[in-house]
Design goal:
The complex is a heterodimer of chains A (about 250) and B (about 240). Chain A contains ten helices and no strands. Chain A is mainly alpha-helical and about 250 residues long. Chain A is flat. The mean pLDDT of chain B is about 85. Chain B is mainly alpha-helical. In chain B, helix 1 packs across helix 2 and helix 3 runs antiparallel to helix 5. The chains are: A mainly alpha (about 250), B mainly alpha (about 240).
Chain lengths: ~250, ~240
């Protein structure tokens, strides 16, 4: 990696973090001045936490940009050379699972679910459901790239299925599922998995832009289905997941 | 916890970091391990690329550790305080205004959305300049966060809301020009800011904790997901109208 490329990543990442934290900081300042009027120690705790989180996000995104992205592309290129296209699917599933397992927003959501449900919906259960969903999504996405299937053939039935499951699944899990779809498409998926799809589709002679785009759409859909499926299981078992786990 | 004086902040921080270290390692460990195995068994990328990956892993691990600690220490309380203050004010207008502003401001600033707007601009044949498209997408996010909050405040049915929204997405995606749909569905990913996410989550939980007769889980979650539907609908509509 050349010095200028590194500098560019550095500046872009710093800019991205700054733009992400500014609206939040502004919102907090306005609320603190007008409504909250929290004591100083609370304010300093929030400010310190926000600064630490921003520094962490900066290092995280920088690491993803300089380390994960090029390697994702390398894996994609290797996968593209496979003569058996179906091999793309297990590789996609494996990488989809471990990537989502590491996605910070997914973990924070799962933590919050356990906290809000006062422990009756366990964090690992939600995490696992989301990761399995994304694994299937990336597998399907790779299959789609390999065999050139139109994206809407997966998305339209997928969202149709989601509508049906909304009416059958446990209410709590429907709400969690919707959020799960929102957080699964974090920076790890957006760089690492996307680079994978781009590499695979470029090798197959397809338009990488169109193919790469579809993958993120599938990653957003799959956890909605898998978390609601978990809700169905919970409802059919007729007990909370805490008991069914132990 | 909140009763500790400021001078003890660094001690708390150390304890928090120790607590978060195992979570961080459990979180990215499998990914790093799988990549190492793939490198040896299948990929065989150049030493430079692999070294870069290892260096990146160190940054990612340290970054996650700080991120998780900072979210617990500052961002979640921030969201909870603001959410609780919002519902205590009992002003619907204020609540919706804040929801809209948060969705709008965080989306406009997202680097991904600018890239996306440029792509949509190209796909639509330049009918809408990327700049105004960015504002349109951000407004879509703001609108849907506000709608999602309305549902919580009035205790409306989540099932109906989702059925209508997903149904609209299906119908619009079948009607819109075919090159628009993939672009539109990918737009859902632009709203998942890692810093905003926890704040919105905690804000919604803060609101439901103050309103009576609300389920912490069924009503507290769903706001983030609705936020990511906003840009999808906006872009599909745009493809339809062009």
């Amino acid at each position: 990696m050349t010095g200028t490329a590194f500098l560019e990543d550095l500046v872009l990442t710093a800019r991205g973090v700054l733009l992400a934290v500014l609206p939040l900081a502004l919102l907090f300042v306005i609320f603190q001045l007008v409504f909250l009027k929290l004591p100083r120690k609370e304010v300093s705790r929030i400010v310190a936490g926000t600064l630490i989180a921003s520094a962490g996000l900066f290092l995280f995104l920088l690491g993803v940009a300089i380390g994960f992205m090029p390697f994702g592309r390398a894996i994609g290129t290797t996968l593209g050379t496979f003569s058996d296209k179906w091999l793309l699917v297990p590789f996609g599933m494996l990488l989809g699972f471990v990537t989502t397992w590491g996605e910070p927003a997914v973990r924070i959501l799962a933590d919050q679910v356990e906290e809000a449900s006062t422990g009756s919906i366990r964090q690992p259960l939600v995490l696992l459901a989301i990761c399995i969903g994304v694994a299937i999504a990336v597998g399907a996405g790779m299959f789609r790239i390999g065999y050139d299937i139109p994206l809407l053939w997966l998305l339209v039935p997928g969202y149709g299925l989601a509508i049906a499951m909304i009416w059958l699944s446990d209410k709590d899990f429907v709400s969690i599922a919707v959020d799960a779809g929102g957080v699964a498409t974090g920076p790890l998926a957006n760089t690492f998995l996307l680079a994978l799809a781009l590499g695979a589709s470029a090798a197959g002679g397809q338009d990488p832009l169109v193919q790469g785009l579809g993958l993120v759409a599938l990653i957003a859909l799959a956890p909605i289905l898998s978390v609601m499926a978990l809700g169905l299981l919970v409802r059919w078992k007729g007990r909370r997941p805490l008991e069914s786990q132990s | 916890m909140s009763r500790l004086p400021v001078s003890l902040l660094h001690l708390r921080m150390l304890a928090l970091l120790r607590l978060k270290l195992s979570e961080t390692l459990r979180s990215v460990g499998p990914l790093i391990l799988v990549v190492c195995v793939l490198q040896i068994a299948v990929v065989g990328a150049s030493a430079a690329v692999f070294l870069q990956f290892l260096l990146g892993s160190v940054l990612v691990t340290v970054g996650l550790l700080l991120l998780f600690a900072g979210v617990d220490l500052g961002l979640l309380p921030m969201g909870r305080f603001i959410g609780a203050a919002l519902s205590e004010k009992k002003s619907l207008v204020l609540m919706l205004a804040v929801a809209f502003a948060m969705g709008f401001a965080t989306t406009v600033a997202e680097p991904d959305v600018i890239v996306l707007a440029a792509q949509a601009d190209a796909a639509s044949g330049g009918t809408l300049p990327a700049r105004s498209l960015t504002y349109l997408i951000a407004a879509g996010v703001g609108l849907f966060v506000a709608i999602a909050l309305l549902r919580v405040v009035f205790g409306l049915s989540m099932a109906w809301q989702l059925t209508i929204v997903y149904g609209a997405m299906i119908v619009l995606s079948l009607l819109a020009p075919s090159q628009f749909a993939p672009l539109a569905f990918d737009a859902g990913s632009v709203t998942t800011g890692i810093l905003t996410g926890p704040v919105v989550l905690a804000l919604a939980l803060g609101i439901t904790s103050v309103l009576s007769g609300r389920s912490a889980v069924a009503d507290g979650f769903g706001l983030l997901g609705m936020a990511s539907v906003g840009p999808i609908i906006v872009l599909l509509l745009l493809g339809l109208l062009r």
